[in-house]
């Protein structure tokens, strides 16, 4: 009888369509259509950047680079008495590094970190591999345990602008950046505890909270000149220098 046919389409049959039909997994076989993690659905797809109104148009010049040329350079030259324009401190590059030890047991999470760092910086990061094996940690030489990206030029200035104006104010209980993180050769490093301070990251799509290290490399070898450069660019430092004395600038 037609009414007893399993999964049939005869009149009077109220059972759900057969497994793999359009009711589960979309049209076609199981897992098709808008399956989790697939095209058009899931958490991963919502994190990808979408098209905007400026697609196809030339990118404007970074406003922070223009501010450096017009305002910061003359101020630094006057403050330190620099007559040679090549002696004026400048920002060379910004390095963003993420070390993720859990990638040993969950390599899939490293792919997510690569995607997040690419969205934050606008540049595809490289995967970092272990240089030696450590048996106590279950680490083998050549295993991927982190990602890093080096920003130069326009991407560097754009990232610094967004970091100063948007990301830093979103840090919880923020009281200023530590001025004791200079390396003695004019470079400054800081640590970020969670990637959610960047507005490019969708909070609902985050599967793993992780931090990152950000290093600002300058052309000067003096920490006081590097501090003055970053402060003129808008970095909100605390009021104490490396020795604990109050800064006058």
What would a concise description of this structure say?
The protein has helices at residues 42-47, 63-80, 107-121, 153-167, 223-233, and strands at residues 91-99, 126-129, 144-151, 188-192, 212-218.
Can you give a write-up of this model?
The protein is of the alpha+beta class and 249 residues long. The protein has a domain at 89-233: Ribosomal protein L5 (50s Ribosomal Protein L5, Chain: A), CATH 3.30.1440.10. It is built from five helices and five strands. The chain has helices at residues 42-47, 63-80, 107-121, 153-167, 223-233; strands at residues 91-99, 126-129, 144-151, 188-192, 212-218. Strands 2-3-1-5-4 form a five-stranded antiparallel β-sheet. The longest helix is centred in the N-terminal third of the chain and has 18 residues, at 63-80. It starts with 41 loop residues before the first helix and ends in a 16-residue tail after the last helix.
Fill in the CATH topology of the domain at 89-233.
Answer: 50s Ribosomal Protein L5, Chain: A
- With strands numbered from the N-terminus, the spatial order across the biggest sheet is 2-3-1-5-4
Would you report the number of β strands? Answer: 5
Order of helices and strands: HHEHEEHEEH
Major beta sheet, specifics? 5 strands, antiparallel
- Stretches where pLDDT is under 50 for at least 5 consecutive residues are 1-43, 241-249
Helix content: 25-40%
Question: Ends: how far apart?
Answer: 91 Å
Query: What is the molecular shape?
Result: globular
CATH class of the domain at 89-233: Alpha Beta
């Amino acid at each position: 009888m037609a009414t007893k046919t399993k999964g049939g389409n005869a009149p009077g049959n109220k059972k759900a369509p057969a497994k793999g039909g359009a009711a589960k997994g979309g049209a076609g076989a199981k897992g098709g259509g808008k399956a989790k993690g697939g095209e058009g659905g899931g958490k991963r797809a919502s994190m990808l950047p979408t098209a905007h109104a400026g697609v196809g148009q030339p990118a404007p010049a970074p406003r922070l680079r223009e501010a450096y040329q017009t305002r910061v350079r003359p101020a630094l030259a006057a403050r330190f008495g620099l007559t040679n324009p090549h002696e004026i401190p400048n920002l060379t590059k910004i390095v963003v590094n993420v070390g993720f030890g859990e990638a040993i047991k969950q390599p899939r999470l490293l792919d997510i970190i690569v995607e997040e760092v690419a969205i934050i910086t606008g540049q595809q990061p490289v995967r970092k591999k272990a240089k030696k094996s450590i048996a106590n940690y279950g680490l083998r030489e050549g295993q991927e345990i982190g990602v890093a990206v080096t920003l130069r030029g326009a991407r560097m200035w754009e990232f610094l602008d967004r970091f100063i104006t948007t990301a830093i104010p979103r840090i919880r209980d923020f009281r200023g950046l530590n001025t004791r993180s200079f390396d003695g050769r004019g470079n400054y490093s800081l640590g970020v505890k969670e990637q959610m301070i960047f507005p490019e990251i969708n909070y609902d799509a985050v599967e793993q909270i992780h931090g990152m290290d950000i290093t600002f490399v300058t052309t000067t070898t003096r920490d006081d000149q590097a501090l003055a450069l970053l402060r003129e660019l808008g970095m909100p430092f605390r009021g104490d220098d490396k020795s604990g004395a109050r800064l006058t600038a």
